[in-house]
Design a protein that fits this description.
Strand 5, helix 9 and strand 6 (261-262) form a beta-alpha-beta unit. The chain has helices spanning 27-35, 45-64, 70-84, 103-120, 133-137, 143-179, 199-218, 221-224, 242-256, 266-271, 274-300, 330-354, 364-388, 397-406, 415-418, 420-433, 437-443, 449-455; strands at 7-12, 15-20, 184-189, 192-198, 226-227, 261-262, 311-312, 394-395. It folds into three domains: 7-139, Fumarase/aspartase (N-terminal domain) (Fumarase C, Chain B, domain 1); 145-227 and 263-397, Fumarase/aspartase (Central domain) (Fumarase C, Chain A, domain 2, Up-down Bundle); 407-462, Orthogonal Bundle (Ribonucleotide Reductase Protein R1, domain 1). Helix 2 packs across helix 9, helix 6 runs parallel beside helix 13 and helix 11 packs antiparallel against helix 12 (330-354). The chain is mainly alpha-helical and 469 residues long.
Length: 469
Amino acid sequence: MGRAMKTRTEIDSLGSMDVPASAYYGAQTARAVENFPISGLKPHPVFVWAVVIIKKCAARANMSTGRLPEKLGAAIVAAADEILAGEKADQFVVDPFQAGAGTSHNMNVNEVLANRALELLGHQRGDFSILHPNDHVNMAQSTNDVIPTAIRLASLEMLDPLLEGLEGLESALAEKSQEFDHILKSGRTHLQDAVPIRMGQEFGAYAAAVRKNREGLEACIPDLLEMGIGGTAVGTGLNAEPAYITAIIEELVVATGFPLVASVDLFEAMQNMDPFLALSSALRRTAVNLGRIANDLRLLASGPRTGLDEIRLPAIQPGSSIMPGKINPSMAEMTNMVCFQVMGCDQTIMLAAQAGQLELNVMMPLIAWNLTFSMELLKNCVQKFTESCISGISANEGRCRRYLDDSLGLVTVLAPYIGYNASAAIAKESVVSGRSIREIVLEQGLMAVEELDSIMQPEHLTEPGLPKQ
């Protein structure tokens, strides 16, 4: 038999509740742990950071209005600073799949801060007659304005490294565009031969797509900067003085460094999940493009003997437990998996955003978890995809040239000179006979050697206009 866990008893509005003696959280958190053993997941650390920093700023704002005694407020701020420095991270234990709106998570933070503040004041954990999770840590707040504010702050905090990573990916693709710009190859549409293209042009298009995705994410920032904190329960600001509402925004600006502003409509800021839906949509768009690029790289690197083999991806690990020497496009495959997951998270966020009712969206914990999870996945994925795949790509120039010389797409250049139907007939004959387009054109006397050689130079076929003669 194992040794029984030591507990202490705390009391909330439902009565007494046993809490692990070593825990800094209290009765409401213990109830949530008991009620919601759903996924085994925990809140993202940045989301915890966001709620804690709101509590710290709220305490400072409430002290500035004179409502919160300086001694208690200073203890709450000191406790918050410890957590913001990385202490007691294991005390935030509520499953993301919890009661609506995020009350359980909000109270988890309130209780941890209250109990640590009590210790700093020389009192026992749970002695809430001195300093109370609701009355003091949650003063002038509601879960309903804390949680959407925290999602905004967490999103802003996580955007910076993601945007930096995307800028690095864009730069790496642009460098490959320059490196490969001299390499001529066959274009492909419908996975069939098409007119020539330079490999540098392909990679330049990837860089441009990533740039547009990065700009799409940046466009989400202004709406995320609008804070609804101070609306309390339904947006009216009940139990929050106007001076507090002004002060907490000012405190948050100082604490986070973000140019935050108060929402002009606290009701809308509480009810409407549009800023998170827009960010999630921009993340999905980014995932769609990253997945598409990863697919192209897998296809272009297929082989090496029985595939396209136009590029070589860095070998980062053995590719098979049974086939010696096999190397797989592992980083591109990982990227695909991440992109699928982000797309799924976006669908969840969309459903949760439209499920809001009247003055509140109770699905905010689901939005918070899926949004932070998506941003964490993409940040890590983009960094590894850039470092361990894109930066190490090399081109197989010989294979590219052989495909180009054999491509039926070259017949397109003849259309302005001999007509579409005659060109199509040549292509058909080339497929049936296996002979080259050049050979058939000369055999049929459709062009002189000099004219044909002049217009069929692939170097002239990758820029606008008719082939040079």
